[in-house]
Protein 1
Amino acid sequence: MLVNIHKHRISLLLFFAALVTGNVNSQVWTLQQCIDTALVNNKNLQISRNSSEIGDQRHKEARATLIPKVNVNADYRYYANLPYQFMPLSAFGGPDGQFKEVQFGVPHNINANLQLTMSLYNPQVYGAIQSTKIGAEISGLQVQKTTEQIFFEISNLYYNAQILNSQRAFIDSNLINNKKLLKNLQLLKEQLLAKGADVSKVQLQIDQLTNQGEIIGNKYEQVINALKFIMGISGERHIGIEPLSLYHPDNRDYKNASTIEFRLSEIQSKLLVSELRTLKNSRLPSLALYGFYGVSGFGYDKQPYEFLKFYPIGYGGLQLTYPLFNGSITQRKINQKKLEVRNSELQQSLITEQTNMQIDNARQQRLVAQHSLETTRSQIALGQSVYGQTILQQAQGTAGLPDVLLADNALREAQQNYLTAVVEYLKADLELKKLTGNILNK
């Protein structure tokens, strides 16, 4: 029955921790509210989403290369000196092997035309479309990875803030006990039943607890500021957190799912295979359709033959391009890409083995932390019981101040061990969620 009473005391103590140490005007935020706010306001996540949109636009850009292209061209030239051509004299009845320079044309030349080009088959274009599609998938996974990282960081900070709040609550409780003890000793000293050194020892312990409370309070504010920064809200805004009640682990296990890191390595390997295929296909010929229509204008601006006349021109055709030989550059690129693909396959295997090892370690660490939680929880109840009994014995004169201080130190050590066990369990549980791909699952 005594143990149950002390458990309720601990729960009440931790529940009122936020009220005792927090800002009365602070809004209490749950962990889920902090996460939801960060998913909207966090700038790193916004950058990641923009990068994903850039990947989508690149894929659309690559696909747009298959759409016919139409260009309008216009050109005007005025020849101050008309170009020369050499005419063979034999064309006019002269001797063979002799030539005469002649200027052809008119000074004003105008050209205006429409040019149509359309790729019918180009392995490089199709390879780029496939690669940008895979790149867009990678960008999407990067958004998920950033989301997981934000979830992980906020959860860690929130848990740390709860632990620090609980530490302050324990210190406040210990201060109350020590101040009561100091008051009793001061009364006994006035009655010459206690030594001044005993009063000084308790006063020193109170000063130490007060200093520890200030240090923990400063750490708490730093953690809250970091939490607000990741959430993307103003640093001047006052927020509070839910108090950490007497913690009971749920002991549930998580099914292994594909982690973001493994899925990223899979898609990156897929991208390398696509790039290798594109390099191999670059040896194939490409075929394009083109068309041309326009007018050519010729003008002369001197008397008595001033004129400006336009003549139409138009044609269409097919263009076949075949890379016959480029100095074995393509083959060297293919060899490099094959090695990159092989390294990617090895990286996937390495990630799988490493993740399995980390999952086993996280499960073991969580199990150890769970046992430690159960042990330290009972130690706190026992420490409070021993402290209470020692205080009664001291009042009855059957226990001295050293016994009281020893019981107080034992209680504080049990409290710290309990908080350490809670931290270790929460971190191990969070790490296990991340490693098994369940960090975003509620």
Protein 2
Amino acid sequence: MEILDGKKISNQIKDEITVEVDKMKKKGEKVPHLAAVLVGNDGASLTYVGSKVKSCERVGFESTLVKLPSTTSELELLNKIEELNKDENIDGFIVQLPLPEQINEQKVLMAIDPDKDVDGFHPTNFGKMALDMSTFIPATPFGILELLERYNVETKGKHTVVIGRSHIVGRPMSILMGRKGFPGNSTVTLTHSHTKNITQITSQADIIITALGQPNYLKAEMVKDDVVVIDVGITRVPDEDAPRGYKITGDVDFENVSKKASYITPVPGGVGPMTIAMLLKNTLLARERHRARNGQ
């Protein structure tokens, strides 16, 4: 069994990006600039955005954090997005989800300029991804592909089972794992809350990607020997013995499933760190496109 170490690989990617940014600086070029919009004070969102800002500093990107109160109206947020769309200094930006209930998330994601949508959530980018065209791949699926590629995990002809059909992870992964090329060329089964006999399906899988958010959902009896397991789940589970009063748990019963797996991602330290690294990679891509478009 080999651990797919997202922390290690994400640091490698950040080092590679740092080298690219240093080259830009030496040529006197503008370095990539990532902005993040945070509405309200959700604890997990604050932590996540904070780590994005730190990662930007580490690789030499410029970053801007736009903090808005939880009382912000939909119109106020849409006006702020329009400002960022028009700001030539900003190459890419994200709007941190979830948003307060008075704001329609779909409307907000649709308002982002697809050329600055480094989260890869805009329908234009999602459609290009589905058609195998060059685009921004959502950061978490992009990170999973990168892990599989850097550990040289064979995907061709394999049976991949995806658990969960969210637009952020499950659905894009089901498309990407079936695409031509590597990682890809696998036969994909997409499962969800209405799937019957799920154990029958997962026990035939060569690769399982689970993004449910249900702690310890995937048990050892649900998988076959030598399975590859990618655990995207991340849930805070109360734990009186832990310093913070909780521990972070994935969708997979790691202790028992890891005994049968050939490769497995830990939680934390697996897919999570990759998400931020790939967001930086998308921002670098946005900068290159921006420069090509403006002839800079």
Protein 3
Amino acid sequence: MIGFQRKETHNQGDMPFMDITIASFHPNHWPSVAEIYRMGLLTRQATFETEVPSFAQWDQKFHKHLRWVVLREGAVVGWAGLMPVSARKVYAGVAEVSIYIHPDRAGLGIGKRLMRHLIAESEEAGLWTLYASLFPENTASVRLHESSGFRKVGYREKIAQLDGRWRDTVIYERRSRKVGV
């Protein structure tokens, strides 16, 4: 069983028309998800990671029921997942956002649709805060988060090195208007 699927075939406001399906992640999607992640790594603007993890490593990081893929004509063109930020019970309603779109599909509104889906599903699952740590140079991701109701709550100067160079990150947060109010 693949799980939840939602087909989206209409224009949603400021997003161009595109026939896509957002589906729950299934292990069969892993090769495509790994390839999209690899392309994100190569930009050096998406994450401090430099290698694609094994499926087992990737699988352990995310909430099992809070991972999705975007399908267009049967091909995975994007994915998203939510990771717990802490093992402490008091933070059970807080998750870190990970969202990647195939570079050939960037700018078509896929990320915005996937983010809307992620937010709705996170609230359905009882999460009250979504968190993201972004490179400030990743303007597409910054715009996506800001347009999705995330607000900048912090800045970490020279938090870690990537390829021997100190990098800054900005912290974004979205508080649910439905859960934990």
